[in-house]
């Protein structure tokens, strides 16, 4: 599929392959729940159940971002860190370096999102 997900057709119905893998791995039916790729597509069989919100915590940084880090954006020759908390953007401060802003994001993400946080590799 264009979104990188493999699908399987069974009895005329399409299913995402990772949902079937989760069922086979755990013997737990993920019906009505989201199956999250813990490490994205780097380890496609490392799966867990997540709420929609938890699954969104694990998103990668946006491709059109000017920063190389998630949760960081340029602001008047400095770098602003920010994170979304229950759908509301929270400013984490403005920093001299992009790296300092990324570290601020990482700390906040780990604190707020726990095991579902996708932190920046620094």
Name given to the CATH homologous superfamily of the largest domain: AP2/ERF domain
Please tally the β strands and state the result: 7
What is the SS-derived class? Answer: alpha+beta
CATH class of the largest domain: Alpha Beta
Order of helices and strands: EEHEEHEEEH
Corresponding CATH architecture of the largest domain: 2-Layer Sandwich
Calculate the terminal CA-CA distance, rounded to whole Å: 32 Å
Strand and helix map with partners:
Blueprint: E1 7-10, E2 13-16, H1 17-26, E3 34-37, E4 47-50, H2 52-57, E5 72-75, E6 78-85, E7 88-95, H3 98-113
Antiparallel strand pairs: 1-2, 3-4, 5-6, 6-7
Which key terms come to mind for this protein?
two-stranded antiparallel ribbon; elongated; 7 strands; single chain; three-stranded antiparallel sheet; GCC-box Binding Domain; alpha+beta
Structure description:
With 122 residues, the protein is α+β, with helices and mostly antiparallel strands. It has helices spanning 17-26, 52-57, 98-113; strands at residues 7-10, 13-16, 34-37, 47-50, 72-75, 78-85, 88-95. The protein has a three-stranded antiparallel sheet, with helices on one face. A two-stranded antiparallel ribbon has the order 1-2. A two-stranded antiparallel ribbon has the order 3-4. β6 (78-85) and β7 (88-95) form a beta hairpin. The protein is elongated and about 55 Å long.
């Amino acid at each position: 599929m264009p979104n990188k997900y493999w699908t399987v057709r069974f009895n005329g119905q399409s299913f995402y392959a990772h949902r079937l893998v989760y069922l086979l791995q755990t013997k737990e039916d993920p019906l009505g729940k989201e199956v999250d790729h813990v490490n994205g597509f780097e380890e496609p069989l490392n799966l867990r159940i997540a709420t929609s919100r938890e699954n969104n915590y694990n998103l990668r940084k946006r491709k059109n971002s000017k920063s190389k880090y998630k949760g960081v954006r340029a602001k008047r020759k400095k770098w602003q860190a920010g994170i979304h908390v229950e759908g509301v953007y929270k400013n984490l401060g403005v920093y001299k370096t992009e790296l300092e802003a990324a570290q601020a994001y990482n700390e906040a993400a780990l604190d707020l999102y726990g095991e579902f946080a996708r932190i920046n590799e620094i």
